[in-house]
Each structure stands twice: as structure tokens, then as C-alpha cells.
């Protein structure tokens, strides 16, 4: 199976094909753009006829002025139609690519999903798609600009070949500049965008790992990692700015240089009578127009560099989906009917290039109608086996075949059909989509009342619904966060049972259920076995394996023992050891890490990174490597003031943010001012040249020509300074904003993330900051320059022709009225669009995480359609805003056209106060100044959309920064101790939501130093809530938790949490090595100390099994490890931190009993006065605690030791009796993310 990422070299062709998919709209946009360009070209020629007629004393050119009025109206219509159509196409392509992105990810194989950095997917859907959309919106204008320049040159040759040749001198210079800079800028831009994706991926990982970061008090460590990535991004962006500073100003100044040539040579030719004043004005107008066009094209060239890397990154994700002709994605697959079997022969499976084998020569048969149990240690391959049976993983070698009544399907190369309705997998950590319980059970399948009721009853969901006010209409929250772990497992079981599959694979899928509930579910499964269902159960507990007819024991990815279930459970030493019923003979591998030195395993070479290796980080083209190596080194870093400013708290204040960059900002404004003065000065030089030409003063014409060259040189130097200073200001401000937002998120209470959803929080750090970034990097500079050009040109007109002010005032009033109407429309549209975009990004974030579930239940097309609907709502809202932009700026341009007609009005109306008589120089200057207003207005129209998005994004960023942090919610008395001392729950009551019942009510509980407390009870009882309150993730609404008599809410969080540690069942690991994750709670821990902890907790065998040992890369969120291996690493992370308070929330649920027994024993030996609170789903584990607390429906029912509770005959005694009666080894619930969270 090839894992090569294919990236199409024809990125532009693919984008243009998408752009032209709606042929009518595409042809319309291009036609209207060309029509507008044609009008732009014709208007100066009409003006020439008027001016030349005036100079020659001919009669009034009424017809020419009427033509100009008609041209202005037609140009308004063409620009409105072109902008509306082009923006509609661009937003539609953005929508199509966004949906294609999710559709492609929905076709990813299990291996690709393991390697997928989900934060990067969101980054590409936000940042890269926005860049592509911006380029596509400019496409018709760019095409028209190229045609405009080409036809312009033809007309200029027709009017004066000599002046045209002088103009053509600049063309080769521009070409050489583009060719020299294009590849270097592209390479630097690609690296900059990769740095952005890395920062986004880390941000998503950090948000997901907030509970871990908080409980270990490692916000500063995570912040330092973020800071390093942000510094790298800053340096790479500054390198792009340096390269762009050598390109963009030079390209922009070339038309000014050509204008100076025309002014000098044209003035001489006018003096000799070789050309008329009107022809001179046409050339000057064309070159002023060309200045705007070249500025537009320079922006397009830069946008192409950005869009190319963005498009290739998007296409890389889309193209990396495997073609699975066997995949069933539309829900069209139907059950074959009855039980089916499966045969696996000599199956080999590796996960990632050069990684270890996870299955090696596996031979196993699942017989029709039987229940096969699979047992093994963490990392043995039993969970991977379930994914192979379901078709998620395609074996490297061997045969996987389904067996029905009389036929066998499958051969040595083709896997079981991905999404086959006959094979359903339920994992230990099920994924639920945001929505209701009913929505998650049905997943779009046709509703059948009897099947639905049967599935709910068999999965014990019916009893759960009885205590929910909204029943199966209850919303589960993001990823099921509002339910306990046991409730999530029950819903996942009901979802699978509703399918009535021929083969049901349960990968320890009942580990979070209490004893009584699990027994009820097992009874239902036994009944289904008798009705034509085959069952495969993987597990680590006798209760689970007691379901089986046969049991296969897996070690190292192969079956090492297989036989009748009763026989193996009675006689197998290996199986009894896994179940914790017999101690195996110790071996060297199980006791110590190979080798005596701390560095027992060498670090992996860069080319042997495992599953999470850079499968999606391939260069878009081999040729890029040469240009990357040829780039200058990164030399820029943000200064200390930027870091200090980023560490401030509270909303962004303009003065506060700009204060550290004031010198660079002043420099940028001064350079911009020089650029504008230079641009405004050139028409004045043209006026002087015409005046001196009329007087026959050739010397003065020559001196004015030299002055024009000096002005052009100064303009180029100022342009270079503008780019360097402005980009430094923008990137430093963005660095500050990113750091401040990230630090603030790290300090927000967890209920904010629960309320906003992880995808919503990530949107604040990506889409909202990216909108600000896009505007600051390009739009702000363009806006300032063009605004100053408009005001400079208007001031020059008033100074040159004071009588023209009534025309300017009238034009200003028209613009003000239009602006008021325009703002009223966009003030509603843009915020709505931003909220819709946040919802789209959050939905994408969730659906990418739920792809495996969607594939199992063949609803990938449905979740893609749901996402497309939300994306379409955003698209439609964006188009509404774009329609307002489409009419407003053409209206402003038409107003300028009318002002230009007013300049020529004295040709037909006598006595106007701004009449210049036969002063050709003044008329030419007025025409040039008024014409100069046109293209700045057009460019402001281009950046207005970016400015509005930035304004809304800034408001949302400030909304985030206004959220109160954990520190603001608690007092901080000095000198208060950390987590040592006795803890007391004093009549504690707590609810996750004000409209929900209390998860805990009137709880009174004590935990003394050195004491272990086990919390047990049915699913959803409130057990995990106790742990979360102790970790100070939430604050109780009633009562208080005291530490040595002090309310813990008043203890500084850092002091408290640095002496506490938590291990949840769903362990979160950060990208990096195993050793780095173990040392997360105590970064100064030496390698020898880590090794000592590994040995003392019996984890040497597991570490040795990983290539590279402690240096093994765990992948994004630990995806390269099994669930049990992740739990071992999380436990070691907690132990190495040496906490006073250790919180274990189902922390050994994914381990076999042998491993759990070893870890529990080591915990007891290493107690040393530590308080330990254990939420235990195995009563055998809970029974070893000093004190056991039994909770049900949020109330504490009983406390005491194991024997005392058995004698009392309460709930605990009932659970224990049920456990013994079923051969159970103790199972209570796993609230996971919260019992009602």
C-alpha cells in the first residue's frame, strides 16, 4: 500500500477549473471585466477629443461629453456585475473546496487517520481557503488588467510610436523582477504557511489538553512551546517581507518611471508640435492607470505565491485520500441477513513507515454464530484486530475474508468492505456527535420503532432516559461531553445494535458500565447470539471473556493460545495472569529496561518516525527544495516588549498594542507620506512641463524631467521602507495578539471550553486572528496609501482650481449617503457571517474527529451533507455582504467619473468658476488628479472586505479576552499551602449547567494524608465530578471543599495544582516522545529518574516494545500508542511529578488486570503520605482502598472499608454480590468527560 502524498503540479489549472465550473457565471464575470476595461481604455480617447477641440478653439464637443456620461453609467453596471459575479464564484469555490476537504478525510484509511493532524485540517480549511478565495475574487480583475495593459500599449503605439517605445522600456525590467523574485517568494511563503499550520496544530492540541496542563500547573511550559512556534512564524514572515520589499516597490514604481519618461519626452514632442496636448493627456492618463494596474498585479503576484502554497496544501489533503472502491459511504449497504464469520490468515500489519509490526502472522477464525473472546496486554494488538475486522486497516500481507451462508468474499489483497453493514465495531472510547441521543443512535438511518426500542433496551439506555427530562431528545454536547463515560458507551452500543449486524466487534466496549448494567447488557448480547449474530469481544476482565465460546490470547500481534473459553479460563496460566488471578514467572524484559545506562534506547533517526510521521508534510514539489535551501536565513525575532505585551491580560487596546512598535509605525507612516507626495507631485510636474513646452523652454523641460526621475527614485526608496516598516509593525502586533489570546485560553476555566466547544475556541485562535492578519499584512497598507492618495489628489485639485470645490462637495455628499446605506447593510451581514464561520469550523473540527465512527456506520455522505449545509449558509451570508460591496464601490467610481466630466464641462458651458481657458497644462493636471482618484477607490473596494472581516474578528478576539480567567474567579491569599493536608467536602453541591439537576448534592467526605479513597457507584452517579472538583476544574455552587480548614477556592491555583496530579481514563498525550510526556509534570526530571519510575511500575516491557523506547514519538495526541499504553504513560507522568494529591479517574480501565495489579501495588508502596482518590470501575481495585465512598445520583450513600460495607448490606454490597455472581472482576462507570458535563 503506497503512502505517498500526491500533489498535483497543475494547481492553477485545478483552481481555474473549479472557478469555471459554473460556466455562465464565469463567462459573465470575465465578459463584464473586459467590458469595464474597454470603457477604461476608451474614456481617455474621448477626453482627448474634447481637450484637443478646446485647444484648437473648435465648437463645443457636446457629443463627446454625452459619450463620457454614457460610459460612466456603463462602467458602473459592468463593475457591479463583475464584482458581484466574481465574489459569488470565489465564495462558491471556497465552499466547494471546504466540503471536498471533509469528503476526502472521510475516505481516509485507518493509517491516514492515525497520522492526521486534525488542527492542521482546520488550519487549511480556514487560512488556506481564505487565501485561495481572495485570489479567485481578483481573477477577473487581474485578467482584465493584463488585457488593459496590452491594449493600452497598442493604442499608445497608434498614437505615438516613440512615446510607446519609451514606455515599453519598463516591460523587460518588470519581467526580470518577477522572474527573479517569484520562486524565492513562493518558497519563503510556503515555509511561512507551514509554520502557521504547525502553530495551529499545536494550538488545537493544547486546547484538547487543557485539563492536563491545568492539573499539572504547566501553563508556562505550554506557553514556552507556543512562544517558540510563534517566534519561528514571526521570523519566517519577516523573511517573506524582506524578499517582498525588494520586489513589490520596484514593480510599483516602474509605471511611475514610464510616466516620467513620457512627461520628459512628451513635453519635448509637444513643444515641437509632434503631438497634441490631448495625446499627452492620454499617455499620462494611461500611465497613471497603469500605476494602479501594476499595483493590483503586484498584489496578485504576491497573492499567487500565497495561494499556490495554500492550494497545494489543500490539494495534498484532498489527494491523499485512498481510493477504496469497497467503501460503503452512502448508507446503501444492506445486511446479508444472519450471522457471518471471518477468517484471517497470516495477517501482517504495520502502522506507518519503518514502525514495528502490530500484527505479525496472525491466524484467527471467527466462526458464524459464536462469540470469540480476544485477550491480551496493552499494545498486544487486540484493539487493532477489531479495526482490521471492520476494514479500517488494510493488512500489509495475509488474507481477510468474510464467510456467509455459502460464499466467501475477500482475497489476499482486498480488505473487508469499509462500512460493510454486516460488520460493526464499538470501541472503548466511543465518539458521539453533537446532537441528541436519538440522533446519535440513528445516525441518519431510517427510524423503526421496534428496532429502536429493542436497541435502547438491550444497551440499557432506556433506564438512563428515565432520569433525563428530555429523554432521547437530550443533547449530548460536543463529543458527548454532557454525558458520563458509561452513558456514552451505552449509546454507542445502542447505535451498533440498531444496525443488527452479522458480526459485532466490541473492543472492551462495556468497561465504563457498572456491574449491574453490564450484566444486563451481556444478557441481551447472549440473546442476540441465538438470533443470528456473531460476536467478537476484546477484554481484560473475566466478566467480558465469560461471554465467549472460544478465547484467543494475543501477544506481540499474534495468537499464542486459543481454545474453549471454559478450559482456558480454568487452566491457562497466561490468561489467568492477564486477569490478575495468577502471578506469572518474571522475566528480564518485564522487570527492567534492556541495558544499564539511562539511554538504553537510542533516539529514532529522523526517517524512522512512526505512525504520526510527516505523512502530510511532504513538499509540494521537488523543485521547491532547491529554492528553500537558497533562501536567506531567518534573522528577525520579536523583541522583549512584544513578549511582555503578549503576557498582559484584558482586551486589546490600540494604544497599548502599538506603543512597543511606535518607532516602526512612525517610520512606516513617514514612508507612506513620501510615497503619496511623490505620486501627487508627478501630475504637477506634467502641468509644469506642458506650460514650459508652450513657452518653448526646452531647458526647463529637461530640468523637470530630471526632477521627475528624482521623485521616482525617492518613491522607490520610500516604498521599500514602507514594506519593511509596515510588515514589522503588523507581524509584531500579530505576535502579541496570538500570545495574549493563547495565554488567556490557557487560563480560562474549563466550563468556557465546554460551552464554546473546542472547535469554537480554535476558531478564535485561527480564523479570527487570520482575518486580522490578512488585513494587517496587506489590506491596511493598501488602505492607508490609497486613502492618502485620494485626499492628496483632492487637495491638489482644490489648490489648482479653487472654484472646483462645489463639485468635490457634491461628490462627497453622494459618497457619504452611499456609505451610510452601505454600512447599515454590512454591519448586519459581516457579524452574522463570522458567527456562521465559527459554527462551520467547529463542525468541521468535530466531524474530522468523528470520521472513523461515520465510516463504521456508513454515514460519511450524510455528515458531509450536514457540513455542506452549514457551509452553504456561511457562503450565502458572505455573498449577501459581497453584493453590498459590489454596488457601493462602483457607485463611488461613477461619482468620480462625473467629477471628471465636470472638469471638461467648461468646454460646453461658459462661466464656470473652475474654467481654465486654453491652459492645457492646468486642464491636463486636473484631469490627471481626478483620474488619480479612480484606482485608489477600486483598490479600497478590494481591501474593504478584508477590513470588515478584521473588524469583526477583532471584536470576537476581545470578547475572548474579556472572559474571566480562573485566577480572576478566586482569591489568592499569600502563604497558603499547596495540596498537602486533609481534605473535607463540606456539604458540597454542584451542577454543570444551571438548567440541569445537581450532579452532586450535599456531599460530606474526608480524605486524610496518606489515605486512599475509592469512589464507586452506578453510571452517571457523580464520581468523576468529585475528582474534577478536587482538581479545581470547576467550583461547587453549594458548600465548600476545605484543605486543612481553608477553602481551596482561595488557594492560589498554581500552588495547589503543582502538588496535585490527575490521570483520566481517556489519557491525553502531547506530540513528542514518550519520555517528554512522562516528564511533563516535572520537566526537570532526569532520564534516570524516569527510568526508575518505569521500572518500579513494571512498565519496562511496554517501553522496550516501542522502537526507540523513551524516545519513541507518540504522535498527535498519542495516536501511535494503544489506549492501554497511553494510560501507562499518563500514570507515569503523574507519578514522576510526585504529587501530594493523586487523582485517578478510571486510570487503569484500559489495562489488563496483571498490569493494573502491578501498578496498584507500586502506588501503595510509593504512597509516602500522599492522598489518593480513585474512581474505580473494578470493585477488586476499589476494595484495596483505605476508604470506599459509594455515590448514586449525586448523593453520598455510604463510606467505609471494604469489609464494613459488605456487612452493611447497602449498594456496595449489592454491586459486589452481582460481580461475584457473574464471575465479574468489578466494574463501575466511567464518566470520562463528566457525569453531566
Automatic annotation (TrEMBL):
Entry's transmembrane regions: 58-78, 153-179, 246-268, 280-307, 664-686, 698-718, 774-798, 804-822, 884-908, 920-937
InterPro entries linked to this entry: AAA+_ATPase, ABC1_TM_dom, ABC1_TM_sf, ABC_transporter-like_ATP-bd, ABC_transporter-like_CS, P-loop_NTPase, Type_1_exporter
Pfam families hit by this protein: ABC_membrane, ABC_tran
Membrane-topology descriptor: Multi-pass membrane protein
Annotated Gene3D superfamilies: ABC transporter type 1, transmembrane domain (1.20.1560.10), P-loop containing nucleotide triphosphate hydrolases (3.40.50.300)
Tagged with keyword Membrane: yes
Localization terms from the record: Cell membrane
Domain ABC transmembrane type-1: 27-306, 666-949
Residue ranges annotated for the ABC transporter domain, each copy included: 344-581, 983-1218
A GO term, aspect molecular function: ATP binding
Keyword tags: ATP-binding, Cell membrane, Membrane, Nucleotide-binding, Transmembrane, Transmembrane helix, Transport
UniProt cross-references to CDD domains, sorted A to Z: ABC_6TM_Rv0194_D2_like
GO cellular component: plasma membrane
Family: Belongs to the ABC transporter superfamily. Lipid exporter (TC 3.A.1.106) family.
Protein name, as recorded: ABC transporter ATP-binding protein
